[in-house]
# Entry
Amino acid sequence: MGVKVGVLALQGDVAEHITAFREALADRPGSSVIPVRKVADLVDLDALAIPGGESTTISRLMGKNGLYDPIAEFEGGIFATCAGMVLIADRVDDPRVRPLARIPMHVDRNAFGRQVDSREAMLEVAGLAEPFRAIFIRAPVATDVGPGVEVLARIPEGIVAVRSGRHMAFAFHPELGGDLRLHRIFLDGLGV
Ligand code: GLN
# Structure
């Protein structure tokens, strides 16, 4: 059976997420990947990606488009990267971000400083046999996680990959770099 994935398309690297999920789903006939801009777009989705970008901007636009409650109640899996990891948390250090509270964790925005501190790292991620080339761009980190949240990877600054039920969140950008192993683990975990 095909998998239907939506990518929250208010701001951020939406096109890269769509491309990565289309590629990860290429061997699953009947699958589709669509941009999500309004509540009606969420209907029938198995999963939703919340992209990297500016969490303050995405937060404001989610409010404007009436998407907070529908995403807070969304029943599929959520794949959140970077700004998405800020939004999916339940506690954020920046009051301009209203978090969706889908994963119990505290997230610090811009934990590496201002824009300058972006980097790549070969990261050990739980569940992957080989390290993942992680691209960090003004990345957040989680500083603590609640019960039931599995920490998949950390760096000296903090936690950078987690799983909570069908949801996964990354401080880096698995949608960039062409390595789709984390997308596949996420898709396998949907149970579709
Ligand atoms: N620092 C950004 C934020 O908190 C996230 C950066 C990114 O998504 N690449 O919104």
User: Anything to note?
Assistant: Residues 14-24 form the longest helix (11 residues). The helical segments are 14-24, 55-64, 68-72, 83-88, 181-189. The domain at 4-188 is CATH 3.40.50.880 (Rossmann fold).
